[in-house]
Amino acid sequence: MVGNRVPLKRAKNTLLEVLFALPSFYHFHVVYAVWHDKRAVLMAALFEPFPLWLAVWETPTLEGIPLVSLHQGRVVHASRQAKKLGIAVGSSLATALIKAPDLEAVEATSPYLTASWERLVEEVSGLSLVLESPMQGWLLMDLELIDAAQLAESYKVRVGLAESVEVAIIAALISSPGRVRRVEVERQELLIDALPLYILKGLGLSAGVQERLSWLGIKQVGQLRAWKKPQVLAYLGPEGKGLLPYLFGPYRTQLGRYAPAPCISAQLAFDEPVTEPHMLHPAVDQLVEKLVALLDGRAASRLSVTALSQGLELKAIRLSKAPLQRTGEVTRLALLTFEDTRAQPLGIDALSVELSGLTRPEKQGSLWPQKERIELAVAAVEARFPRAILKLSQDDPYSLASEHNVRFVVRSTGEEVNHEAGPATPKRYDRRAGQPVEA
């Protein structure tokens, strides 16, 4: 398919000559044939397993080396070379190293993978804004054949073209890296029926269910499509629900528009390469102050730092355990993320800090509005009469004299207030002397 790009360009240049040379009766047929070959169709590109693809994309020397992705010490994905050596999904890292001493391992889940996929989707969106990403590693777009072939060749991924989303995904599953597999509407039913059953593994069919189907003699997808939908759901269980659109339809022919995730960033360039912390830390503080001002009440969940050193971009990403809103929190996480880049000894030419995963936190209102009204009234009185409202402050709780237990202070400032003696104490009558005396 990639080799068809040159003839298409040549045919475009000579289209007018062909039209004028032919009778007018053939003009419509020629135009329709060219349009039919170049019209936009739905494309599915599979960058999976994405952790392994990203590792090879960033480090081309890993191509051809046994490579696995790990989660909690267990193999989640294995490359073709690793599978040839007997490394199976679910095996421990120790077992995999015994079978392949030169094994390379990467993390199966990390904030860096999530951010890298978002950045890749944003980069590919330059080809078409009609784009969806149902899961990490899957890309659905509305593209022409030439653009799809260029994407497959550039990123070395499997690409499928069809009139519907589900058929395009199936076409991508049976394609090879760097190639485009196009399925016409007239041939899609025959193609799906002839597929071997193991192709459905890429759509969520587990090895256990595939083995159970093999006991019934089902080896092709067409044999499974001969069943009715309730039979598939009853025998396959939860996996059957995800396979129904690919087996029976209805097929989806429309895609949504791409909306990039909001993010804010700040950059700073140095006149000369900087390696000293006493120059880098103030630069990070300056960038963080700009970002916090741009947040405008929002909170971020992910922070990334990119350091430009000797023409290379060294990037590190961290997820925050709590929403990032305050300057101190953002600065602390930015410094830790900057250390992850390990670019300081090389000399920093430019520094960039980015906040993403932006949300606007909601605040829980009070359950007692009367208390809020009282507080507002007190604040209004104190604003006009600062020393009008007093409160009691405990002074000596162990004193037997009541005047030494507490004292009056101004509520707003805490300033002590000296009061004169209160109203005269009542006098009691002394019967023996006949004169009243003070109590």
* Arithmetic mean pLDDT: 82
Judged by helices, strands and strand pairing, the structural class is alpha+beta
CATH architecture assignment of the largest domain: 2-Layer Sandwich
Name of the CATH first level of the largest domain: Alpha Beta
Q: Which strand order spans the largest sheet, edge to edge or round the barrel?
A: 5-6-1-7-8
CATH superfamily of the largest domain: Reverse transcriptase/Diguanylate cyclase domain
The low-confidence runs, each spanning 5 or more residues with pLDDT under 50, are: 1-20, 25-38, 421-425
Q: Cα-atom Rg, whole angstroms?
A: 36 Å
Please summarize the sheet with the most strands: 5 strands, mixed
Compute the number of structural domains: 4
Output the number of helix runs: 18
Helix content: 40-55%
Task: Report what the structure shows.
The chain has 439 residues and is an alpha+beta fold. The chain folds into 4 domains: 38 residues; 184 residues, Alpha-Beta Plaits (2-Layer Sandwich); 94 residues, 2-Layer Sandwich (Dna Ligase, domain 1); 43 residues, no CATH class. It is built from 18 helices and 16 strands. The strands form 5 sheets. It has a 5-stranded mixed β-sheet. A 4-stranded antiparallel β-sheet has the order 9-12-10-11, sandwiched between helices. A 3-stranded mixed β-sheet has the order 3-2-4. α13 packs antiparallel against α14 and α15 packs across α16. The radius of gyration is 36 Å and the shape is elongated. The N terminus is likely disordered.
